[in-house]
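User: Please fill in residues for this 168-position structure.
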C-alpha cells in the first residue's frame, strides 16, 4: 500500500503543476532517451500517425534530449539500439509540471495522457529509419555512473539520477 500511496502522491504533484521526481518502472513507465534534433521530431510525426497522437514525450533543450515515456518493464526487453537508450528501475526522472509546454527547462513536447504511453516497437522502427543524432549513449553512461545527485547534476544531464549508489 505504501507504493500505491507514493504513486498517487506523485501523480497529484504533477497534476498540481509541480515538477516531480518519480521512480521509473513499477507500474508507471520506463523512458527511452534520444536526441531531440530534426530526425527525432520526424519520429514524433510517425508516432502521431501510429497512435493517433504520440504518447507523452518530454524535451530537455539544455541536454538536447527527448524522453519518450514507454510501458513499464520495457527496459528489460529493450535490445541495444544505436539511436536510443531505454532505462527503468532503479532510476528516477523529474517530470515537468503538466502546464509546462514550452522552454526554458524540460517541458512536455507531447503532453502526458492517462490513456497512452509510447509503444516501443513502432518507436524502435522509427528510430532505426530516421537515426536521430547525436546518440545519448556516452553521455548517459556517464550520468548513470554518477554516485550522488550532485554528481548527476555535475554531468550536465538533467532529469535522471541513480538513487542507489551501491548499484554501480
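Assistant: Residues filled in for all 168 positions:
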Amino acid at each position: 500500500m505504501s507504493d500505491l500511496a507514493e504513486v498517487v502522491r506523485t501523480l497529484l504533484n504533477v497534476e498540481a503543476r509541480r515538477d516531480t521526481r518519480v521512480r521509473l518502472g513499477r507500474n508507471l513507465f520506463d523512458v527511452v532517451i534520444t536526441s531531440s534534433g530534426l530526425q527525432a521530431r520526424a519520429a514524433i510525426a510517425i508516432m502521431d500517425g501510429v497512435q493517433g497522437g504520440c504518447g507523452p514525450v518530454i524535451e530537455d533543450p539544455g541536454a538536447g534530449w527527448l524522453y519518450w515515456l514507454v510501458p513499464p518493464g520495457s527496459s528489460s526487453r529493450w535490445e541495444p539500439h544505436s539511436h536510443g537508450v531505454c532505462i527503468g528501475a532503479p532510476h528516477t526522472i523529474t517530470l515537468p509540471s503538466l502546464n509546462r509546454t514550452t522552454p526554458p527547462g524540460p517541458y512536455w513536447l507531447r503532453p502526458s495522457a492517462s490513456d497512452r504511453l509510447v509503444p516501443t516497437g513502432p518507436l524502435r522502427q522509427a528510430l532505426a529509419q530516421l537515426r536521430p543524432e547525436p546518440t545519448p549513449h556516452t553521455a548517459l553512461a556517464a550520468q548513470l555512473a554518477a554516485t550522488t545527485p550532485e554528481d548527476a547534476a555535475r554531468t550536465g544531464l538533467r532529469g535522471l539520477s541513480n538513487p542507489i549508489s551501491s548499484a554501480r
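For context: The chain is about 35% helix and 20% strand.
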